[in-house]
Amino acid sequence: MRLRPAVVLAGLVALLLCVAVWQGTSSEPGRETNGQSAERSRPAQPSTSPGEPTSSRSPDALRDGRRIWVAPLPSAESGLPTTSGPLPRHLRVDRAYPPLRAGAVQRAVMVLGVVGDTAVLDRLLVLDESGQVFELDLGPLMSPGGPTLSRGALSPDGTRLALGRTGAYVVVDLRAPVRQTVHATGGSTSELSWEDGAVVTRARNRVAADTRTAELTVGIAGIEGLAVRGGQASAIAVTGDGKALLVLDGDRTGTCCAVAGWLDPDRVLYESRTGPRLHLLAWHTGTGRVSLVSTVEPAVSNDSYLLTSYARLGA
Questions:
Q1: Residue with the larger pLDDT of the pair 250 and 76
Q2: Could you say which of 69, 153, 175, 176 is the most buried, measured as most Cβ atoms within 10 Å of its Cβ?
Q3: pLDDT of amino acid 19
Q4: pTM, whole model, 2 decimals?
């Protein structure tokens, strides 16, 4: 049977109208198509890991071949991009943690000491490389003048801890934990660090990474051509390959910004203490970018403050 031209034309018009209606409704934002929203069905956009620098930031100054950047102010640190590291994103030191027992920790990356009015440790927390936190029993170590925690107290390999006492120091194997008391023959035990696998009675303030070192300098009044906010500043200086300087200004205290170590060959991990919080920040010495690794609190309260020591990290 032959169809009349009018019938064929009407059918084509109806078909075109249906296609037009279907296209219009399927492209409306938020409409469902086979169980997926239109937004989700679009091709995924390239992404980068949080906090990883995607571009270089021009130095704020150049002096004698050294690139100089000014660090973000303390008030801006909480809003910085985050980046991954060996430490948890947030850590509270005022909560209870399980006791450190034999076999619980194979390698510590950080120890945190809570110190009271007498400058002697009240609590000592051990953080392992998987992010678990344990508390070391200080009872057997308590004595007049001790124990005390130095910045260099944790061995670079994260297995041993040196704690000061009057006229002596105690070495704790964190894997056991087993304690060994060593009577000091000279020097103060208030500043202990490790050198070639042995405890030495002097401070460790330089952190090495292959052919470079990072070291904190305090009391910088100014740098030519660069405004220093808040009077004096501190600075983290990288020497060796790729000389760089990070200026830490903005009314910080002299103990605000200790160098914790190298996260990798390009990034220095440093502390920023502002109010009750301690921010651990990563400075990329090639791009100048600063990102947030971890927040520890409270770093200070009405009757205590926090001391820290770090193992060799990623570099």
A1: 76
A2: 153
A3: 31
A4: 0.79
Q: Is there a contact between 69 and 245 (Cβ–Cβ < 8 Å)? A: yes
Angstrom distances, CA of residue 208 to CA of 2, 214, 238, 261, 310: 91, 6, 9, 8, 13
Number of structural domains the chain divides into: 1
The whole-number pLDDT of residue 199 equals 92
160-165 and 168-173 as β-strands: parallel, antiparallel, unpaired?
Answer: antiparallel
Q: Which of 72, 108, 131 is nearest to 281 (CA)?
A: 72
Q: Which residues are within 8 A (CB) of 121 and not within 5 positions of it... i.e. 6 or more apart?
A: 113, 114, 115, 138, 147, 148, 149, 163, 307
Domain presence at residue 52:
no
Residue 39: inside a domain: no
pLDDT tens digits for 49-87? Answer: 444 545 578 999 998 889 999 999 999 999 999 998 889
Please indicate, yes or no, if residue 15 is contained in any of the structural domains: no
Token pair in block for residue 80: 């910085």
Let me know: does 131 contact 88? Beta carbons within 8 Å.
Answer: yes
β-pair partners for 163: 149, 170
